[in-house]
Design brief:
α1 packs across α3, α11 runs antiparallel to α12 and α13 crosses α14. The relative contact order is 0.09. The chain contains 18 helices and 14 strands. It has about 450 residues and is an alpha/beta fold. The model has no long low-confidence stretch (mean pLDDT about 95). α14 links the parallel β9 and β10. It has two domains: about 190 residues, 3-Layer(aba) Sandwich (Rossmann fold); about 220 residues, NAD(P)-binding Rossmann-like Domain (Rossmann fold, 3-Layer(aba) Sandwich), CATH 3.40.50. It is globular, with a radius of gyration of 24 Å. An eight-stranded mixed beta sheet has the order 3-2-1-4-5-6-7-8, with helices on both faces. A six-stranded parallel beta sheet has the order 11-10-9-12-13-14. It is about 40% helix and about 15% strand.
Length: about 450
């Protein structure tokens, strides 16, 4: 029998989980206090692009996927309430929980059943799930349900498969009773239609810490690869060959997050590094995580130095950013590396333009759009005309299909800083290509 699920917070995370749960046969209601999200979902359309999401939502909306226009009625009949906000962060990568907590309290104040189960997957600092559980019992002293916390694991551009077919699942449970834990695990898997996945059951706090630890470990890998790359550039070694060899070691593995390039951005890894830096014991006079964050923040200076060493002062120079979304196959620009790099180059006097096949600037706040460091162009010819150099940020497949021979003649300087080692072949066309971790330009 279908169950009623209320999904609270329905931008990227909630959209994917809500649609997938509806696709598993449940009656899913979506709700969010954000006006843009509400406007999109009330018409049956996800508020961002994620491969496969719109097609799946279109088939389900109005059948067993709905916008919760009557929040009180839905909240009181829901058997599950999902908390799925993409937790905001500020410009210093500090978590901002106010909107998440306000939305959650709004739903709790509508009333909920005594045996309602709560599933949290928003990015929450360790200890938050327990505190939110206390808010539930305060709102309804007769409540006898349970709380599950699953660390968010959805990668932009691959979110549906990440949710339905994870390598493994981490579930934090608010009970130490193994029979209760196993029952909640089985019920949740049946609810969402997820099968054949190893599940690690643990406490709420341990699950929250697992998320912090995973992202911090990935952040260490990013910074390690970039620090190694700079040394390779000076010594004549090739960092890409070094990294390829490291991945062949069984103790590291082929999927290791080792790739010279830009620093981590988007807030995902930085958020958890910052969280752990705040949790460092006060009696320690040195914080590994604070240093890790600081080193990463300086990574954009490498790109600035590469441009300056070949162009001189950047004042008045026209620089083209190739790709401004956080990843390929997504429309998300929020906290993308292009925004951070763009602000740095703009501060040096560069005139920035950008090219991206899918960037959705409407996701940004009015202030963010007004402060955009670049002008988004509609065609590669327009973006690269009279450009003194380009920086590849997002490895869109469409960029490989451009007529680089023709575009070269329109550029003021045929220079490419290829942060992904994605377009190195254009060096054969007379471009000067700079790749992180390579000992010299490819020409």
């Amino acid at each position: 029998m279908s169950q009623t699920v209320l999904v609270v917070g329905t931008w990227h995370l909630g959209s994917v989980i809500g649609v997938c749960t509806a696709n598993a046969g449940q009656n899913v209601y979506l709700w969010d206090q954000n006006d843009n999200v509400k406007s999109q979902w009330s018409k049956g359309s996800p508020p961002l692009h994620e491969p496969g999401l719109t097609d799946m939502a279109t088939k389900l909306f109005g059948k067993n996927l709905f916008w919760a226009s009557d929040l009180k009625s839905v909240s009181q009949k829901a058997q599950w309430i999902f908390l799925c906000y993409d937790t905001p962060i500020d410009d210093k990568d500090e978590i901002l929980l106010d909107s998440v907590e306000d939305g959650f309290k709004t739903v709790l104040n509508q009333g909920f059943s005594n045996d309602c189960r709560f599933y949290f997957t928003s990015q929450l600092p360790v200890g938050t799930s327990r505190r939110f559980r206390n808010l539930i019992t305060k709102a309804n002293p007769h409540w006898q349900g349970h709380v599950i916390y699953q660390p968010e694991n959805l990668r932009l551009g691959e979110a549906i498969s990440c949710f339905l077919k994870p390598d493994r699942m981490v579930l934090g449970i608010d009970s130490q009773d193994n029979s209760i834990r196993n029952k909640l695990r089985d019920d949740f898997l049946k609810l969402t239609g997820i099968t054949d996945v190893p599940v690690n059951l643990m406490s709420l706090e341990t699950a929250e810490m697992t998320k912090h630890a995973l992202n911090a470990f990935l952040a260490v890998s990013v910074v390690f690869a970039n620090e190694l790359a700079e040394i390779c550039e000076e010594t004549g070694a090739d960092a890409w060959e070094v990294v390829a060899s490291l991945k062949q070691d069984a103790r590291i593995g082929p999927k290791a997050f080792l790739r010279p390039g830009m620093g981590f951005s988007g807030g995902t890894l930085a958020r958890d590094v910052k969280t752990l830096s705040h949790l460092t014991p006060p009696n320690k006079n040195h914080s590994f995580f604070k240093e890790l964050y600081s080193i990463n923040q300086a990574r954009n200076l490498w790109i600035k130095r590469q441009l300056e060493s070949r162009l001189g002062s950047l004042k008045g120079k026209r620089i083209t950013l190739l790709g401004v979304t956080y990843k390929p196959q997504t429309s998300t620009v929020r906290r993308s590396p292009a925004l951070e790099l763009g602000q740095l180059l703009k501060s040096e006097g560069a005139k920035l333009v950008a090219l991206d096949p899918m960037a959705d600037l409407s996701e940004l706040t009015t202030a963010e759009r007004q402060g955009l460091p670049f002008e988004l162009m509609q065609s590669p010819e327009e973006a690269l005309k009279k450009s003194h150099g380009a920086v590849l940020i997002t490895e869109w497949p469409q960029f490989k299909e451009l007529n680089w021979t023709q575009l070269k003649d329109t550029m003021e300087v045929p220079l490419l800083v290829d942060t992904k080692n994605f377009l190195s072949q254009i060096g054969q066309l007379g471009y000067r290509v700079v790749i992180p971790g390579k000992p010299k330009d490819l020409t």
